[in-house]
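Hi there,

I know you've been waiting on this one. I reran it after we fixed the sequence typo, so this is the corrected version. Both the input and the resulting structure follow.
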Amino acid sequence: MKYLAILLLAASVFFASSCGAPKAVTKSSETKVEESRPGMNLLTESDVIRAWAVGESTDKMVARNKATMMAQAQLGQLLDMAVHTTVEDYCVTLEDADQVIGKRYLSEKTQAVSNVMLTGVHIIFDSWEFDKQKNIHSNYVVVEISPEEYLTRLAAAVAKDPEIKVDAERLKEIFLKAVNKNK
């Protein structure tokens, strides 16, 4: 029985180490692929929320629409993660009773502002490629939301309700930290 346990342990270690080697090679080749795709380098800039996508089709407008919609969807996910983290971290500093009210209130306000911001995203990079053999247009786009603009709109939304006090500077600090967290 001990022999079987030792054999299984050795096989597990061997299997785990052999699985790790190809993963490292794959990761470095993925990095090279990402670097060669137009616009990908724009995603690493701090204090902005950006998303990259490519749309492919035999029709240029369909390719453009695919790229833009996919980038907007990804941007929505990034914004949602940053906003959720911000609301959670901001509300931790509040008193118990204020925490529940503040969390619900900020969640409602941030959701409303997020929806408005996502409909007006800025395309900051737009590049085309055409594969003649396959007759495929590829459109690479990078879209962006300015955290400053987001925070300005959020502050305006919060100012409409003077009964609730929000520390705008603290909120800005937490939001920018959340935006830069995954870069």
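Quick highlight: Helices lie at 2-36, 60-92, 96-119, 147-159, 168-180.

Best,
R. S.
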